[in-house]
Amino acid sequence: EQGLQLLELGGSVEEDCIRIARCFEATRQRCCRLEQDGRRAREQLARVEAERAALEVKLKHARNQVEVEMKKRHRAEAELEKQERKLQLVLELLMREPWGSEALSREQCSVLSALAGQRLGAALAPNRRSSAVDESCQSLLSHSDISYDRTEDDVVRS
């Protein structure tokens, strides 16, 4: 609009020159503001990119830690099941052997019998979890619900 107004010169030459100078000054000031806005936007982008990179590193470490902890848990559960099987065999041996029954009192035999029944039931239970771990919040955050899809990690950023 200002450019069209400049073409419609109707006053004195001095007034037209002053109007042109003011128009150039307004344009220069607008360019300076846009340049400052661009500089601030680039600085903000650099900060956000640095924060994103730091968060990606934290995410990678967290994923690795979860993986390590899950492996430890599976090993511990396997060891627990192995020890429970050994205990079950010992209890069964004590209950079957005549010398075991004679060496133990009736009360001890009944306690071992009850314990053997509990252990056998626990060992045969499918998908059993360690009772030492409180999984009452399982519906909120279960390790089986966590996605370990790393395809987003491999995306090339432009």
UniProtKB/TrEMBL annotation:
Transmembrane segments: none
Keywords for this protein: Coiled coil
One Gene Ontology MF term: GTPase activator activity
GO cellular component: centralspindlin complex; cleavage furrow; midbody; nucleus; spindle midzone
Biological processes, Gene Ontology terms: mitotic cytokinesis; mitotic spindle midzone assembly; Rho protein signal transduction
Parts forming coiled coils: 38-97
Stated name of the protein: RGAP1 protein
